[in-house]
Design a protein that fits this description.
- Helix content is 39%, strand content 20%.
- The protein is an alpha/beta fold.
- The chain folds into two domains: 183 residues, 3-Layer(aba) Sandwich (Rossmann fold), CATH 3.40.50.300; 83 residues, no CATH class.
- The chain has a six-stranded mixed beta sheet, with helices on both faces. Strands 2-1-4-5 form a four-stranded antiparallel beta sheet, covered by helices on one side.
- Strand 1 and strand 2 form a beta hairpin.
- It is globular, with a radius of gyration of 19 Å.
- The relative contact order is 0.17.
- Bound molecules: adenosine-5'-triphosphate.
- The site of adenosine-5'-triphosphate has 11 residues, from strand 2 and helix 1.
- Keywords: ATP-binding, Nucleotide-binding, Transport.
- Pfam families: ABC_tran, BCA_ABC_TP_C.
- One of its GO terms (cellular component) is plasma membrane.
- It comes from Caenispirillum bisanense.
């Protein structure tokens, strides 16, 4: 990818700290009345990895994302973020710690420009008290504004969206809107990026572009990725670790190759629209990691 701006400095962990997972979900349950949307879910996402959560419709993937990011409060269990419990924190405080997410349906301000949407991403870190505002009024605030501008420019360059920076979001193709959503999430300076169906509704070319950007975010920026995605080809190609949910429970987890050959996983997908895709992957018996 052409880039004459260096990537953001990695918040790279010292070797000893890398053993602490970016995210550790332990025995999490979430009930809606009598329905167990999540039931004893346990898995972790290693620092600097792409971890994907898959499962048939209604398996609990979105509920899991909402619980991790703090929109829902788990009935039982715990969630640790880089070793620290976030169980008592609400969604905005988890976002401030560096949990950024995109949504299944694009959640951008369609009448606003690309740049203004990206600028909104930084609000996760903005302080609002009067004292803070006064303190920030001087040099520190100017310096911070410059840093933020620099970050925005790096993101725009990195995601190759310079040509549309002043375009209203509503005028963009679906694939570009998804890329702007990714840009806004990056502006939050995330330590973990949670992507809810990042390539849903995309054509093949847009999907490949998005897959490349996700890998670049991981590799060049050192950001951990947690992704929910139905596109099995994309999941198997770019994931380091795959977690399979069915009826709110983890039925399998492991490397993509193990998962796509797991009979329980294939059985879970029978009758779902995704089974053809999964079967194709199994028959194909190869992924990018094997080609490389
Ligand atoms: N707010 C809610 N109130 C009641 N039930 C809910 C709520 N949200 C989800 N559910 C139920 O919880 C279960 C898990 O739903 P969830 O949306 O998490 O699944 P999913 O794996 O994300 O599905 P999809 O792939 O279709 O998006 C489903 O049975 C769903 O009907």
């Amino acid at each position: 990818m052409a880039s004459n701006v260096s990537p953001l400095p990695k918040a790279g962990p010292p070797a000893s700290a890398a053993a602490v997972p970016a995210l550790a979900v332990q025995d999490v349950a979430l009930y809606f009345g009598g329905l167990r949307a999540l039931d004893g879910v346990t898995f972790s996402a290693a620092q600097g990895s792409v971890t994907s959560v898959i499962g048939p419709n209604g398996a609990g993937k979105t509920s899991l994302f909402n619980t991790i990011s703090g929109f829902y409060k788990a009935n039982t269990g715990s969630i640790r973020f880089f070793g620290d419990s976030v169980d008592r924190l609400h969604a905005p405080d988890r976002a401030k710690l560096g949990m950024a997410r995109t949504f299944q349906n694009i959640a951008l301000f369609r009448g606003m420009t690309v740049l203004d949407n990206i600028k909104l991403g930084r609000h996760a870190h903005m302080e609002t008290s009067l004292l803070d505002a006064l303190w920030y009024f001087g040099r520190a605030r100017r310096e911070e504004m410059e840093l933020r501008r620099e970050i925005e420019e790096r993101i725009i360059d990195f995601l190759e969206i310079d040509h549309i920076r002043n375009a209203p979001v509503a005028a963009l193709s679906y694939g570009l809107q998804k890329r702007v959503e990714l840009a806004r999430a990056l502006a939050m300076k995330p330590r973990i990026l949670m992507l809810d169906e990042p390539v849903a509704g995309m054509n093949r070319e847009e999907t490949e572009d998005m897959a490349r950007f996700i890998l670049d975010v991981k590799e060049e920026w050192g950001v951990t990725i947690l992704m929910v995605e139905h596109d099995m080809g994309m999941v198997m190609d770019i994931s380091d670790h795959v977690v399979v949910l069915n009826f709110g429970q983890v039925i399998a987890q492991g490397e993509p190759r193990e998962i796509s050959n797991n009979p329980e996983v294939i059985a879970a997908y029978l009758g779902s629209g995704d089974v053809g895709d999964l079967r194709a992957r199994v028959q194909q018996g190869r992924g990018r990691r094997e080609v490389a």
